[in-house]
Amino acid sequence: MSAPPARGAVLPTTPQALSGRLSAADHALRRAIHAWRADGQPARGAPPHGVALQALYVQRALRLLSRRPRLAAATIRRLPARLAHETSELTAALRDLRRLSGGWSAHPVRTGPPEPIGKLLAYYRAAQRRFGVGWHVLAAVNLVESAFGRVRNESVAGAQGPMQFMPSTWRTYGLGGDIRDPRDAILGAANLLRHAGAPESYARALYAYNPSRLYVDAVQRYARLIGSDRDAVYFLYSSRVLVRTRHGGRPVADRSEASQR
Questions:
Q1: Dihedral angle at the C-alpha atoms of 119, 155, 258, 44, nearest 10 degrees?
Q2: Residue 260 pairs with which residues in a beta bridge?
Q3: What digits encode the pLDDT tens for the residues 34-87?
């Protein structure tokens, strides 16, 4: 396997070069994810260094494409069909979320290590068994709300925890649990979504969770990808919280620190 790209590796900005690099990085990332899963590590710890670096490179490429629609269209045309479809979905979700947060001022971001992905998957599936809400949708909400628990801030509106509940809503749907505990928060989210119309209408349920069409679209795009590609949740989990700087996105370490998002 070739060495993973350096953390600050320069991204090509021509469609031909970028599509080639993205295809190679996707292939290498999948091989690294398969090796990680074969070792049984997802249930216990953080992504291996190789997975994290490959994921960061792909994440940075997707972020670039989401900000440059013409480059994205020309690059996606050159990708293999499966990767082209997934790249289109992911860049669209990123555009949705950027528009959703467009009015927010720069603010400190506090981060910390998430629960191991193996534990999160067990929580999602337990919630699915109890409430009938798809595990892939719960994973997508967890991703969008807090990057799987990495972001520790309250929202600008005062929502808390890895599934970002308002305290008043938590009192109704939180089942007496801890709003900041990943397992309790995932169960509470499944409870809310079930009462709001899932699984019959995920769009209606997600709109009740966050009344924004951009939010609903982004979560559903991520959920479709997670549900159809067994590697997707491992890639998304291994992606980093990026903060804006004059030189582009900078990854934040998975420990508490202040930054500007």
A1: 0
A2: 108
A3: 999 988 777 778 899 999 999 999 999 999 999 999 999 999 999 999 999 999
Overall pTM surpassing 0.90 (yes/no): yes
Tokens of 86: 């997934």
Q: How far apart are CA 242 and CA 233, in angstroms?
A: 18
Return the amino acid letter for 43: A
Separation CA 56–CA 63 (nearest Å) = 10
- Domains, the chain: 15-107+237-251 (no CATH), 117-222 (1.10.530.10)
State the Cα torsion 109-176-190-98 to the nearest 10°: -20
